[in-house]
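Key result, reporting period 2: structure in, sequence out.
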């Protein structure tokens, strides 16, 4: 291939196609019509003598050849953008923009709520729009973050294996604890493995997620728990537990916060469970944007304060 005869605009189109994995979204992103984007994909396929994107049951997926090229193409375009594109300064005190976040209610209560006071002082015109992620323990896909959200905050234990189009920052870790009503008829100050397995549980599940890590760990010991109530929110769990003989396994910070509002016992869990990892994830597309960088820095600052750092 001769670089002199190569249309460098095709690199921008290739990048968009690899990240969106959808011709319509990629066309919208680079400002082309869908027929023009389809024509550009045909040119790319002819140029590289490879399909680049193929249909699978899960949607469009890059071929091995495309996966081998994307890192180098991203790096080259990033360097060009740094030279060519002038990044305007971001003044949070004057901004009136709305940031779209994916977050569960745990993050809302323990991270975003403490952040609001600082946000109102430093950037009173900025608004947050928060929506639930599709999964509780899986990071959003690049397409989900590129389409409708600026960043996601949640329990993403697989962050180190994220798609190359995504960046992440660990905000904090914390252990799991068990909560039970202060008036529980048989649990007093501690809970044994036998009691834990025999008890009826409240568990947080999104959609059809499951079995969870706790069920897997118990199954390894030949045990199974009774998940009597499944809910899509953390905030309701302490109140469901405090007025019943059910128990729940929740992040320690949440348990301690709600133990002041509901009559709860906070107990060590009798099995070893990996810690919750609250992680912030964002798309490469907004990585260098000053406004998004400011928001991420603010979130990291508040997280550090909550950790006592």
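The corresponding designed sequence is given below.
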């Amino acid at each position: 291939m001769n670089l002199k005869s190569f249309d460098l605009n095709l690199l921008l189109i290739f990048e968009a196609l690899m990240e969106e994995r959808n011709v319509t979204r990629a066309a919208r992103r680079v400002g082309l019509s869908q027929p023009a984007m389809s024509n550009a994909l045909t040119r790319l396929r002819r140029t590289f003598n490879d399909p680049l994107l193929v249909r699978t049951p899960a949607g469009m997926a890059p071929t091995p050849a495309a996966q081998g090229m994307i890192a180098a193409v991203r790096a080259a375009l990033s360097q060009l953008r740094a030279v060519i594109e002038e990044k305007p300064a971001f003044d949070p005190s004057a901004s009136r923009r709305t940031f779209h976040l994916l977050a569960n209610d745990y993050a809302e209560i323990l991270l975003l709520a403490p952040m609001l006071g600082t946000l109102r002082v430093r950037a009173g015109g900025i608004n947050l729009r928060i929506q639930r992620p599709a999964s509780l323990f899986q990071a959003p896909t690049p397409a989900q973050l590129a389409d409708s959200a600026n960043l996601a905050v949640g329990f993403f234990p697989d962050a180190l294996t994220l798609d190359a189009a995504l960046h992440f920052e660990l905000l904090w870790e914390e252990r799991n604890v068990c909560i039970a009503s202060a008036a529980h008829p048989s649990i007093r100050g501690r809970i044994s493995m036998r009691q834990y397995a025999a008890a009826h549980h409240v568990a947080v599940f999104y959609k059809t997620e499951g079995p969870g890590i706790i069920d897997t760990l118990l199954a390894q010991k030949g045990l199974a728990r009774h998940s009597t109530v499944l809910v899509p929110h953390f905030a309701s769990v302490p109140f469901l537990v405090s007025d019943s003989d059910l128990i729940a396994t929740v992040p320690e910070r949440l348990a301690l916060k709600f133990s002041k509002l509901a009559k709860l016992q906070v107990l060590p869990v009798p099995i070893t469970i990996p810690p919750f990892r609250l992680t912030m994830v964002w798309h490469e597309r907004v990585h260098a944007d000053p406004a998004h960088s400011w928001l991420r820095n603010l979130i990291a600052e508040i997280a550090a304060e909550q950790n006592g750092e």
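The mean pLDDT is 88. The chain is about 40% helix and 20% strand. This case is discussed further under Risks and Mitigation.
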